[in-house]
Amino acid sequence: MNHGFGLMIESLVAFLLLLTIGYCVILNRRLKRLKADEMSLKATISELITATEMAERAVAGLKVAAHECEGTLGERLRAAEHCCADLNRQTNAGAVILERISRVVVGARPLFDGTPAPPPAPVPDPRALAAAARAFAERARERVSALAA
Q: Cα separation of 108 and 101, whole Å?
């Protein structure tokens, strides 16, 4: 019985050794896969770092371009506002001159002295002339603002 008991213990130890060897083989395969995944992960991380650096450079370039555009646009807007103010002053001066001319025309009409005066040339309404001048000036402002843009 002594030999049977020893054989049983030896068989149990051999079985446990076989299980240990099988488990070691499985762990070895998993470790190989983990190493391969580690290498691919390192490659992915390096690609991500490269892409991030490129994106940072692109963002910096866009900021510079936006700043330059802002400066150029600001200059154009100031020039357009200056031109618009000049046109407003000229339009107002034209309206004043037109009003003076209409007063001169009204004052220069021949007085009725008993003899029939030649029929007066049709004098346009000064307000209609002023409105037409304002409309003309407004169209000119629109053209200038379109050119400035």
A: 10
- Residue corresponding to tokens 């304002």: 134
Cα–Cα distance, 130 to 98 (Å, whole number): 7
Q: Where are the alpha helices (DSSP H) in the chain?
A: 2-107, 126-148
Amino acid present at 94: G
Write out the DSSP string of 103-145.
Answer: HHHHHTSPP--SSPPPPPPPPPPHHHHHHHHHHHHHHHHHHHH
Per-residue pLDDT of the chain (149 residues; tens, 9 = 90+): 577 888 899 999 999 999 999 999 999 999 999 888 888 888 899 999 999 999 999 999 999 998 888 888 888 888 888 888 888 888 888 888 888 888 777 777 655 445 555 565 666 677 887 888 888 888 888 887 776 66
Using an 8 Å Cβ cutoff, are 144 and 80 in contact? yes
Largest CA distance in the chain: 167
> Does the reported pTM lie above 0.85?
no
Give the span between the Cα atoms of 114 and 107, in whole angstroms: 18
